[in-house]
Specification:
Shape: globular
Number of helices: 15
Number of strands: 0
Radius of gyration: 19 Å
Order of helices and strands: HHHHHHHHHHHHHHH
Distance between the termini: 16 Å
Structural class: mainly alpha
Largest sheet: none
Strand content: under 5%
Length: about 325
C-alpha cells in the first residue's frame, strides 16, 4: 500500500500530470488559453510516430515468438469482450438508452493511445522494462470493440445504426491514428536499432516535452467537456466512468499473467484494458450510430475516465503489476 501511495504521489507531481491539470484548471476557469488545432494535430502525429517506431525497434531486437501472437490474440479478445461487460454495467447502473449504452461501451473496449503513451513514459522514467510489441497489441485493440457495439445494437432491434458498410469499414481500418501507429511500428521493425540511432535526437529526447504540451491541450478539451456536460454526468454515469476502468484492468491483469508478461507488460495490458478511446471510436460512432449522443460518450471517456487513469489509475496498475510479478 505504501508503494502505491508513493507511486501515485510521484505521478501526480510529474510534469506530464501537472500539464494536464493546468489545462483542466484553465478551461474550468474560462481562460482564453488554447493550443491551435493544427499544432495539437502535429503533436499527436509526433507522439504516435515516436511510440510506434520505438515499439517496432523493440520487436526487431526481441524477435517474433509465440508470446507476441498470443498477446495480439489476447488484445483482440479483450477489445471484443469488454464492451459486453461495459454495456451490462451501464444498463445496471444508469437509465440511458440501449443505443447510447452500446456507443459508450464501444469506447471502453477500445483504447486511449495517449493513456498508453503516458504509461510507457512513466514506466521508462522508473526503469521498468516492457515488451515492445505492446504497441502492436494497442493497435489490434482499436477495432473489435466497435464490432461488438454494433452487435449489441443489432441484437436489440438495430434502431439508429447504419450497420457494417464500406464507409464504416474504411473509417475503422484507415483511421489516421491506426495507420500512423501501425505504419511507424513497421518502419521501426524494418530499420531496427540502426534506424533508431539515426533519428533518436528527434523521437527520444523531445518525447516527454511534446507529451506535456499534448496533455495540456487534452486538459483544455477535458475541462470544456466537464464544464458543458454537467447535466449528462449523473451519479450512475460518473460512477461507471471510474468503476469500468478498474474492472477492465482486472481482465487485463488476468490475461497478462496468463501470458507471463513482465511487470511493464502487465502494467501496459492493464492500462490498455482500462482506457477508453476518444479518437478512433467517436469517429466510427458518428458513422455507425449517428443517433447516439456524442456528448455522453465523449464527456465520459475524455472528461472522466481519462483524468482518472492519468492521475490515479496508472500508478495503481503499475503498483499492482510490480507486486504480482515481483518486478
Amino acid at each position: 500500500m505504501d508503494q502505491l501511495f508513493s507511486l501515485a504521489a510521484d505521478n501526480l507531481i510529474s510534469p506530464i500530470i501537472l500539464s494536464f491539470a493546468l489545462g483542466v484548471a484553465a478551461s474550468l476557469a474560462r481562460s482564453d488559453l488554447s493550443i491551435p488545432e493544427a499544432v495539437a494535430k502535429g503533436l499527436s502525429i509526433y507522439l504516435l510516430f515516436a511510440i510506434g517506431f520505438k515499439g517496432g525497434v523493440s520487436v526487431a531486437a526481441h524477435g517474433i515468438d509465440a508470446t507476441l501472437g498470443l498477446a495480439l490474440l489476447a488484445g483482440i479478445v479483450l477489445s471484443a469482450a469488454l464492451p459486453l461487460v461495459a454495456f451490462a454495467l451501464l444498463r445496471l447502473m444508469t437509465n440511458i438508452s440501449r443505443l447510447d449504452a452500446a456507443a459508450v461501451a464501444a469506447h471502453y473496449g477500445s483504447i486511449s493511445i495517449v493513456t498508453f503513451v503516458a504509461a510507457t513514459s512513466i514506466l521508462e522514467s522508473r526503469g521498468v522494462d516492457s515488451e515492445g510489441y505492446m504497441v502492436a497489441v494497442a493497435a489490434a485493440m482499436e477495432a473489435p470493440a466497435i464490432l461488438s457495439a454494433l452487435w449489441l445494437v443489432a441484437k436489440g432491434g438495430g434502431e439508429g445504426t447504419k450497420g457494417m458498410d464500406s464507409a464504416l469499414m474504411r473509417e475503422i481500418m484507415l483511421n489516421g491514428s491506426i495507420v500512423l501507429l501501425v505504419g511507424s511500428f513497421f518502419i521501426g521493425w524494418a530499420t531496427g536499432e540502426e534506424g533508431l540511432a539515426e533519428i533518436s535526437s528527434f523521437i527520444v529526447s523531445p518525447f516527454k516535452g511534446v507529451l506535456c504540451l499534448f496533455l495540456l491541450d487534452m486538459g483544455l478539451v477535458a475541462g470544456r467537456g466537464l464544464r458543458q456536460g454537467g447535466g449528462i454526468l449523473r451519479p450512475g454515469v460518473l460512477a461507471f466512468g471510474v468503476l469500468m476502468p478498474l474492472i477492465g484492468s482486472v481482465f487485463g491483469l488476468a490475461f497478462a499473467m496468463a501470458l507471463g508478461l513482465s511487470a511493464g507488460g502487465v502494467a501496459l495490458m492493464m492500462v490498455l484494458s482500462a482506457s477508453a478511446s476518444y479518437i478512433a471510436v467517436p469517429a466510427a460512432m458518428r458513422v455507425a450510430l449517428p443517433e447516439a449522443n456524442p456528448s455522453l460518450y465523449l464527456t465520459l471517456s475524455l472528461g472522466v475516465t481519462f483524468p482518472f487513469n492519468l492521475t490515479l489509475g496508472i500508478p495503481l496498475y503499475v503498483a499492482v503489476a510490480q507486486i504480482v510479478t515481483g518486478g
